[in-house]
Design a protein that fits this description.
Length: 718
């Protein structure tokens, strides 16, 4: 086919592709905004815990929920194993353990005003103390500890309370009031609590100075600072007070054991120092929590497995692989079984990757298919026979061919596998005849090929303008005219020219050809551009090539969405006129016929200013409807307009003698037009030169032609 016919192919493909419009998400731009808190530079900034809110609550919350949803939907290794989807390879797509804990918003903590104060709370400047007495004397005082650590109570005087615990404060107040009053009861509580400033430094995700509640602990401060960065330790976090280290906190104790005993209460001017991360090792595969873990001292493989939550249900103890970096120059690997590694107390080193493999399914099965109640795989036992297998499957279907079944057996030989076919008399096998009821072997395949020509309920569907639309059961050899008669014939509104007949078998064939042609087109397009990329002479030319490559990729992606309809172009007539003609085809299971009403419209699409449908006017030609659509655009290929007929065929406009088209209905020649009928679509293609990269593709005409034809469109040229 010559290049002058490309316009038909491209435009027909355009019609097919447009049947599946793009969703808005196909070209959605996903903004990438760095976390300003992670990239913050400059001096430390004070952070008020009570007022702190996520910078973008909607975005962050949405991302958090999306992450949780993905994690919730991801199947476990055991789920994959029992579903038969498990991979024999070990995934090393791992994250450092524990850091995700600090990626959540700290707003989950209870407000500080509602947190009860324990007897060990140490008072300091800024704390509010509420004192109430009743009995022979009544009074109520709201007292704030001043900068000198004192409170001033009328008649009682000035009391130094800074440094006292809450329980000591209550005893002191009762003692002092008892000097002046008798016969009273007292209640002491804390009001507003002071704030303290602490410093988070070192390898923190957001180092800085933080103003927190006086009830805050080390873990509270770590959450405020986003926790350690990936270069910061999780296992040796230090709290320094007055120049001395008062605690070294191992976050793994908290994460793995729930041990919070070293989570100390912070004091003003405390410094939380996060040293660099320690040695890292990875454990992947069949453990409950595969991840990258930080070591603290000597750690054996057994301890690492325990740290990762232990082996899961599908772990294979017979194989453990350790990949190790030697002298920072090369990598080596060695394997052993888990028991041997435990006995030798093998220790892991920085950079090690420990892989725990999954148990390999060693299924010993036999397979059964065909006219039986339950097809499938059945567990093999050494004493199983043909009769045993069929009984396990619930017996034969009533249409099973009992005189013969086929048993396929594979023999392993030195020359390779040898296939043996054994014919089994089912009637004798089921009666227990030892010659027919042969013992089965592992991986045998028994097929029961149903009574010949047996078919169950083959149906076709007829919809639209027939008197009795619906789904009909057909018999072998029944034809289209018979179905139309059974459906009561056509109504007076039936638009026979626009009837759509689809067939499942044709749909599968068309789809296979579409896929093959798109694959070939992809190879042609991509190979034609790959040689040009390296030859770009300037950045502008390289940019243009990049844009062109993206256009090609989107074009191929769009073609991938083309779905065959399985349409067969037919010429429908009333049953008495259809019978015995070429179009009175034999029906197949799954066939579908749709008879629409006359749309009384003509559509104009493509390179016109107003793509829409217009009321059909008898006798009008192509030029009339294009004029109604606003005329041609500047990119229109006016010489290659064509009509897509209601029956699925395509007709070129103006290709007759001197550009004339014969109008058979009115027995006249139309200039530059064509015979337009109700339900037709006028297609005005764009000039092919607009798609520059398609001009040099070898065999693109043939490829697009085959795609268009297999999509159910009959191309008619003359």
């Amino acid at each position: 086919m010559k290049y002058k016919n490309i316009f038909i192919i491209v435009s027909l493909l355009y019609i097919v592709v447009c049947a599946a419009p793009l969703n808005a998400t196909d070209f959605k731009t996903i903004p990438i905004t760095p976390d300003s808190r992670e990239t913050r530079e400059g001096p430390p900034v004070e952070v008020q815990q009570e007022a702190q809110q996520p910078a973008s609550p909607g975005v962050e919350e949405g991302q958090r929920l999306e992450t949780e949803q993905v994690q919730a939907e991801s199947p476990s290794e055991f789920e994959d194993y029992i579903s038969g989807k498990a991979s024999l390879t070990v995934s090393t797509n791992l994250r450092q353990f524990g850091y995700e804990l600090f990626r959540r918003s700290p707003s989950t903590f209870a407000p500080v005003d509602n947190v009860p104060v324990g007897p060990g709370y140490v008072l300091g400047p800024g704390d509010e103390v509420k004192v109430s007495i009743w009995g022979r004397v009544e009074g109520q005082w709201d007292l704030v500890v001043d900068r000198d650590g004192n409170i001033n109570i009328p008649k009682i005087g000035v009391l130094g309370v800074s440094g006292l615990t809450f329980s000591e404060l209550k005893r002191l107040l009762y003692k002092q009031f008892s000097k002046y009053y008798t016969g009273f009861e007292m209640n002491v509580s804390m009001g507003s609590l002071r704030t303290i400033r602490v410093y988070v430094v070192g390898h923190a995700r957001r180092p800085g100075a933080y103003t927190l509640s006086s009830l805050s602990t080390l873990i509270n401060a770590l959450f405020e600072a986003g926790g350690p960065s990936k270069t910061g330790t999780m296992r040796a976090i230090q709290v320094k007070r007055n120049g001395k280290t008062i605690v070294r906190f191992d976050m793994y104790d908290f994460l793995l054991k729930g041990d919070k005993s070293k989570d100390v209460r912070l004091m003003p001017e405390d410094v939380i120092f996060i040293p660099p991360v320690g040695p890292l090792v990875a454990i992947a595969g069949s453990v409950n929590n595969p991840a990258i873990y930080e070591l603290s001292g000597k750690t054996t493989v057994s301890q690492l497995i325990e740290m990762a939550g232990g082996l899961n249900a599908v772990a294979f103890k017979g194989r453990v692989q350790i990949e190790r970096i030697v002298d920072n120059t090369r990598q080596t690997a060695f394997e052993s079984d888990l028991e041997e590694i435990r006995d030798k107390d093998v220790a892991v080193q920085a950079g090690d990757v420990v892989k725990i493999f999954q148990v390999v399914k060693d299924e010993r099965v036999v397979k059964l298919a065909g006219a039986v109640q339950r097809e499938g795989e059945y567990a093999f036992t050494p004493v199983m026979t043909v009769k045993d297998l069929i009984e396990m499957a619930g017996g034969l279907k009533y249409y099973a061919y009992g005189k013969e079944a086929e048993l396929t057996r594979i023999h392993v030989t030195a020359e390779g596998p040898v296939t043996e076919k054994i014919l089994v008399n089912l009637e004798k096998a089921l009666s227990g005849d030892p010659k027919s009821n042969i013992p089965l072997q592992e991986n045998d395949y028994l097929f029961v090929r149903a009574i010949p020509e047996w078919r169950l309920y083959q149906t076709v569907e007829i919809r639209g303008e027939v008197r009795f639309p619906g789904t009909y059961t057909i018999k072998k050899g029944e034809r289209l005219s018979s179905l139309i008669e059974r459906a009561g014939g056509f109504t007076d509104k039936a638009f026979l020219r626009g009837a759509v007949f689809t067939r499942k078998r044709v749909e599968r064939l068309q789809q296979r050809r579409i896929n093959e042609m798109v694959d070939r087109l992809e190879r042609e397009i991509l190979s034609s551009g790959s040689a040009r990329v390296s030859s770009a002479s300037s950045s502008r030319e390289a940019r243009l090539m990049q844009i062109e490559a993206e256009q090609k990729r989107r074009f191929i992606e769009k073609l991938r969405t083309v779905k065959a309809q399985g349409r067969v172009a037919i010429r429908l007539e009333p049953p008495e006129r259809l019978r015995g003609t070429l179009y009175d085809i034999e029906l197949e299971d799954g066939d579908s016929i749709y008879v629409p009403t006359d749309p009384h419209t003509v559509q104009v699409i493509g390179a016109v200013y107003n793509q829409t449908a217009f009321l059909y006017e008898e006798g009008r030609n192509v030029d009339y409807y294009i004029t109604l659509a606003g005329g041609y655009t500047e990119n229109a290929d006016e010489g290659n307009v064509y009509i897509l007929k209601a029956d699925g065929s395509a007709m070129k406009v103006g290709r007759g003698f001197l550009g004339l088209s014969w109008n058979s209905k009115y027995s006249r020649w139309d200039v530059g037009a064509g015979q337009v009928e109700s339900g037709d679509t006028i297609v005005v293609p764009e000039k092919l030169e607009k798609i520059a990269w398609m001009r040099n593709i070898r065999d693109i005409t043939q490829i697009l032609y085959q795609i268009a034809v297999t999509s159910g469109v009959l191309l008619v040229t003359f």
